[in-house]
Fold this protein.
Amino acid sequence: MAEDLSGFSMLDLFRLEAETQTAILSAGVLAIERREQDRGTIEAMMRAAHSLKGAARIVGIEPAVDVSHALEDCFVAAGRGEIRVGAGHADVLLACIDFLGTIGKAEDGLSADGPWPARAADLVAALDRMRATAGEGAESAPAPVPAPPPAPVAVDAEGARSRASATEALPSALPPPGGDEDAPPGDDERPARAGPERTFDTFERVVRVSADSLTRLVGLAGEALVETRQLRPFVDGLVALRAAQFDLCDSLAALEDHVAAEGESLPPMVAPIVERARARADKSLAVLVKHVDDFESFARRNEDLSGRLHHEVIVSRMRPLADGIRGFPRLVRDLARTLGKQVRYEVRGETTGVDRDILDKLEAPLSHLLRNAIDHGLESPPEREAAGKPVIGSIVLEARHRAGMLQVILADDGRGIDIERIRDRAVERDLVPRHVAERLTEAEVLEFLFLPGFSTRERVTEISGRGVGLDVVQSMAKAVGGVVRVASVAGRQTTFTLQLPITMSVVRALLVEVAGEPYAFPLTRIDHIQFVSHSEVRSMEGRQFFQRDGESIGLVAAAQVLGTGTVLAPPDPMPVVVVSDRGQRFGMIVEAFLGERDLEVRPLDPRLGKVADVNSVSLLENGDPVLIVDVEDLVLSIDNMLMGRRLHRVDFEQISRRIRRTKRVLVVDDSVTVRELERQLLQTRGFEVDVAVDGMDGWNAIRGGDYDLVVSDVDMPRLDGIGLVSLVKGDPLRKNIPVVIVSYKDRDEDRLRGLEAGANRYLTKTSFHDQSFIATIIDLIGDPKA
């Protein structure tokens, strides 16, 4: 099936092909210049030039036809051993390639009156001179080595050579690696290495899809995944129901076994009822087991299917890193020559998948870092030699997926960063007082590099000195929800690490609980998490902090910053999330760590405007919404609150007193007499008591209050006691609240029904007379003031 490119004009198609083929040509020239070419290099370049010539002729760009034809002649001659193409010819070849890459994008590229024909004539003349000088030593060239014929292509209108005829010989006239042009013929007979040609031959079929359509498709796939995950709570509920049914059958069997063991028999009217109950229970259990197994299998298949669908849709947004850095080898080569330096540039992980939106934004920041590495980082050859380093400097660009995130690392083996120079420069620009600057750690000093306009250069050049590069890098990282960090070893190395989300559609986040609600912190914006005991907290000038690796980290309550209205007593030790931005670092006290999740990012309704401290929203597996925090905004909010003295200290002594507060009990009963009796009994013993008139009223009170224990009747309107117990025990946030059922019903089956629903105790209302009611309450939650 052919590619669906029907929406492109012929000129658009030429521009697409020019981009692909000039990339192949540039890679080949750089390989020749590094003397790393193999016998497939010239053949791939010849094919690219031939393809460009045919494409340019179709759209009528004659200057491009002339230059690509001259390039093709050079590469064919090299393949036949008539000339030797070496590193000294790179400038001419690259000038021709730049011409071909530029003319298709120019508005006047099709005009015969523009500057292009004259420029093309100059380039063709330069290629002719190159062929003449490169062919002077061709007589001593080794005989060409035949190659398998490539797939033939149609000849052009002038009867030019077809691809098959043009590749009768391989580039045996290439200088071998190492630069020895007089090397024996055997040196050329190396196994062919996959070079730029691979990109040309394995070009995948594409379908033109708008970015908006793909974004909507990602959103729908994410919704399908979330909806499917909501089947899991239903499965868990059915499994619990199956367990209860097993218990019911076991209880009936135990009843019959007990009667038989005692040598007694059930009353004639009861025996058939028990028999029918057991038969129905067994039958219901068999049906339930089958349906639970079927539904569980259905849910598992749907989760797997929706998960694979979501993964494939996300992958469809991915492009290899190589697509965004095609021009970097040329950038490094040209800049190194301009500065008189020698650089070896290496890419690792170039096939690593990157979200299209992120990849489009990644090129400019990485090019800034490359320029800085070559200009600021790498020394000149004499300096490197004097320092005992190899004359050729090294720059390594590496990309990898790690812990659900994309890491892009750029490292050079240059002089490193002068920390003291940055410190002095920050003082000179009045960014920080001298006495404060002297106490800053190395990591804090390095943060100055990312300030707009900050530079340590005294002289501005075309390459650097304006102080805009690293600011652009940090702005891009933050725009996509990532961070950038720098590390340096004086005289040895500088490393920049960009930690970014793999895709902007899904974020890997840490879920935490704040005021009983879940919040999500993107992992890319978290420095670390830890537990901090109350005894580790120190205070200074009204602010609280704790120590980690010799650094003082400010401590605040997340509930207060996020404005939840409820600041609960933190446990000991306290879960703390440490976040930072532009050198400011704070530890946020949360109630619990809930684990990591891959969350589908959903933007907030634009009608809400900018919501403070919140970036976006997502849905959990059970359908509950979760807010994804904006860490940059959050750090700013903390700083503003501290400056305005609006952030209260966490009073750990008060927390201890609150832990020892009066125990609170909720009494739920539809009888006003019973309610008042239970309330008075509990209050007399020192408990704090609230009342509710039925099960639904009780459930609303439980959800809105903080109770240590619930006392409930069974028979009540709207929602009975069994239903209330089931709701409490089925709620993850409230399932640990003890529930005591107090009922007039004292039959064993009633007691069993209440306990199976999850009640901790089942009492009859006669317990009011023998103190067993109060004893049960104290047994479950202790004394009122304990």
Observations:
- DSSP finds 25 helices and 23 strands in the chain.
- Residues 506 and 600 are 5 Å apart (CA to CA).
- The mean pLDDT is 78.
- The first strand starts at residue 318 and ends at 320.
